[in-house]
Hints:
With 482 residues, the protein is an alpha/beta fold. The chain has two domains: 2-372, Alkaline Phosphatase, subunit A (3-Layer(aba) Sandwich); 375-478, Arylsulfatase, C-terminal domain, CATH 3.30.1120. It is built from twelve helices and 20 strands. It has helices at 14-17, 24-34, 62-69, 84-93, 121-126, 192-195, 198-212, 244-266, 306-309, 336-344, 359-362, 444-461; strands at 7-8, 37-43, 72-78, 112-113, 131-137, 155-159, 179-181, 184-187, 218-223, 273-279, 313-316, 325-332, 348-349, 373-378, 382-388, 391-394, 397-401, 417-422, 425-428, 477-478. The strands form five sheets. A ten-stranded mixed β-sheet has the order 8-7-6-5-9-2-10-11-3-12. Helix 7 (198-212) packs parallel to helix 8.
Amino acid sequence: MERKSKIRVGVWGAALSAAVACTPSQQSEKAGKELPNVILIYLDDMGYGDLSLTGATGYKTPHIDRMANEGLFFTHYYSPQAVSSASRAGLLTGCYPNRVGFAGALGPTSGIGISDDEVTIAELLKEKGYATAAYGKWHLGVQSQFLPTNHGFDEFYGIPYSNDMWPLHPTGTYPDLPLFENKEIVNPAVSPDDQAQFTTDFTYRTVDFIKKNHDNPFFIYLAHPMPHVPLYVSDKFKGKSEQGLYGDVMMEIDWSVGEIIKTLEETGLDKQTLVIFTSDNGPWLNYGNHAGSTAGYREGKGTTFEGGQRVPCIMMWRGVIPEGGISNSLASGIDILPTLAEITSAPLPEHIIDGVSLLPILKGDVEAKPRETFYYYYRQNSLEAVRHGDWKLVYPHPGRSYEGSQPGNEGKPGKVKEGFPFPGALYDLRRDPGERYDVSGTYPDIVGKLEQIANIARQDLGDDLTGNEGSNRRQPGRIPGQ
Length: 482
């Protein structure tokens, strides 16, 4: 198969090791039955403080809270980048987004997408016999060659880009938002009423796929378009919260998680399924009461401060992940692919990836630190900050700032400062998670150490702020002429 040229032999995991002594046919059957199912729930613009367990007020998220109580909560988990397309590219490829040619969010007329040379989680798991499906928001290329069914997914039902990209959005004029079934457009212009059914429809698609693949390992990527603006909710949750429309939307998302867990229990698959719940980036704060909460972390979506990339991440796998675990270890969305590769003994891609396996943490060693360093890239290719351990070194850079601006209301955005001149600073995130106190003058040796780490990143991935091109960046897929 062509895909074999894109992967290399990885470690042998427990499922395959247990089958080594069998005949080839027995080995395939046994390994397939022992491979865990994977459901990856990816929210859009959900902030760190948008769950009951992280301080949300005016609504409850009991099903998501239950996931944390019965699984593992990561307190220092970072989205791959602080905006949609780049974050999703990093999640599905196990790479920093700029390594695979992604920066920012793709528009409806963008001519790029995931390259055929990249290996997605879906392609990785298909090599192990998984049935695969993607439901919800894709945002990694709208042309046929970039759609999910060309990148390892057997099924796709969803939208190709953000649900704000349609003419009624208050800040711009965009083409109509189409709804896809695999590669076919089944609704060329979804209406507000259609969008109000998105969370329900994508949830029921997920439930049906679970039931249909009861006897086979499966991977479901459920990328809810909510709670990204414009917000929509079905009638069954409209007006249910004390936090307005945003709270209603979060209650419906919590219902969705509950329906999925209930289906796993009813089908007897709850102990055979790893469920992952997280967000693509932090909240779009200038939307005011239609935006989420950072729980006190600085700034929000579109920034490399903690509020832009530190988001909740919960993993539940009954009987494998100890209940009620809390990990303060550094982790990121780019680590999910190699984690699943180790769990399933799937070969890793031949080319460079940036993720590390989090399996030691999942197995109960919450103090394990497979990741020590994280790079915060934004804009086209600017290394705006680097973290090592509890220390975060921020470089002087122009960026977005929400602080001091009046937020919007009822779906209309408030003003935001773009190109704000952020100064350089060193933060001790253990003592100062809000990034308020620059201690670079007190710890020059720490600054020097992080600068050495940053220089490694610049040589590898480049950095527009210092004029480095980098030697190991790959190109995205492109349509002819782009």
